[in-house]
Amino acid sequence: MVVDIDDIQEVAVIGSGQMGRGIGAVAALAGYDVAINDIDESQLEEAREQIQWSYEKAAENDPDVTEADTEAAFDRISFTTDQEEAVATADFVTEAAVEQQSVKEDIFETLDEVAPEEAILSTNTSGLNITRLAEVTDRPDQVVGTHWFNPPMLMDLVEVIMTEYAPTEVGDTAEALIDSFGKTPIRCKMDIPSFIVNRLMRPYGEGAAWMVYRGEHSMREVDSAMKYKEGFPMGPFELADYTGGIQIRVEGEGDHLEDDRPMAYDTEVCPILHQLYEKGRYGRKAGAGYYDYSDQDEPDIPVDAGQGFDTLLVWAPIVNEAAKMVENDVASVEDIDTGARLGGNWPMGPLEKADEVGLETVLAKLTEVASRHEDTNKLAETLPCDLLVEKAKNGETFY
Length: 399
Ligand SMILES: NC(=O)c1ccc[n+]([C@@H]2O[C@H](COP(=O)([O-])OP(=O)(O)OC[C@H]3O[C@@H](n4cnc5c(N)ncnc54)[C@H](O)[C@@H]3O)[C@@H](O)[C@H]2O)c1
Known about the structure:
Elements: E1 10-14, H1 18-29, E2 33-37, H2 41-61, H3 67-75, E3 77-80, H4 83-87, E4 92-95, H5 101-114, E5 120-123, H6 130-135, E6 143-148, E7 157-161, H7 168-180, E8 184-188, H8 197-213, H9 219-229, H10 236-243, H11 245-251, H12 271-278, H13 312-327, H14 333-343, H15 350-357, H16 359-372, H17 379-382, H18 386-393
Parallel strand pairs: 1-2, 1-4, 2-3, 4-5, 5-6, 7-8
Antiparallel strand pairs: 6-7
Helix pairs in contact: 1-2, 2-3, 8-10, 8-13, 11-12, 13-15, 13-16
The chain binds nicotinamide-adenine-dinucleotide.
């Protein structure tokens, strides 16, 4: 088994789409030999061109990267439709093919047969079941998640996700590799749905959706407050439109029923998402979502529209979700906050925020949010976790 970072010289990437090509580009620039594989020749061709383009940008804009560096890096990358050839001598393989459990399971079965037996196999899945991917191989102890953020060349964060099979040392090696790429790893110690960062994103979007659905606040009020008062890059509605969150959430509604992982979701989708989905309002790419984009690229969110909005109504359920992860030993306080800052570009992490305003205040706000949810099954998400209650009672902080 590859247990030491010094054993890693060759990295293989399966899938050359948006993420795979970026991951390959980062790894080659860090000095590794990289093989990029795809079933689609035209995708490989696009990947080749886009890597060249991103290398030109890096040489132009990054003082630490020279043209000679990027030329040498590009020479270290090979592109192939032959998966066996791509992984034949790889020490670390990252799968970044389409987000479908069955496709990924097939790929992992094949990788297990054709990759060197000491190689670590990782997946860039955004939230699928990594434990099951480990189980289709004869090396479940050498399978981890390495969840990158888009675009990999520019985003600093990578989540390293462990299953019950992989020993800590395999996670340490994956983290050392990510570190050698010049990226910041955080550890998700348990395979839970959505991992760390996307887990925090969910109450951000949904808590806000319920407020608008119940007619308590307008979306411009919430978006403006979170963006201009709190300093988030986008408010929750603008973000959902940007990422296609309405479609993802509605189409993934029943997924949790088959998910036997710890901390599986059990809350319903806010009806406002269904209403938009049924009208084809999936988000920005569809021309409309929460906002209409038919004659504007950016939603009109007045800077002062959120002056009177209490942003803690949005923060409190996020803090609760973060505290649940600490309580269940999914991640450390520091890693959760680093994830929010680097993965979401949030102004601060939820646990830093909790300490800043005081846990008693967070708890009181959470109770207020929960009471508004009495007629929905969202209570589960707003029910304060024991750790938060305990810490508030003892006057403790997270740091
Ligand atoms: N796009 C994002 O913002 C983002 C962020 C984090 C993680 N992810 C995850 O990364 C993965 C890839 O996402 P993407 O946005 O790059 O997708 P994409 O659709 O751009 O690329 C997927 C690529 O995989 C290839 N592919 C499909 N089946 C294959 C197979 N059997 N063998 C080899 N290649 C195969 C496709 O031809 C395509 O080129 C997904 O699991 C996604 O959830 C995406």
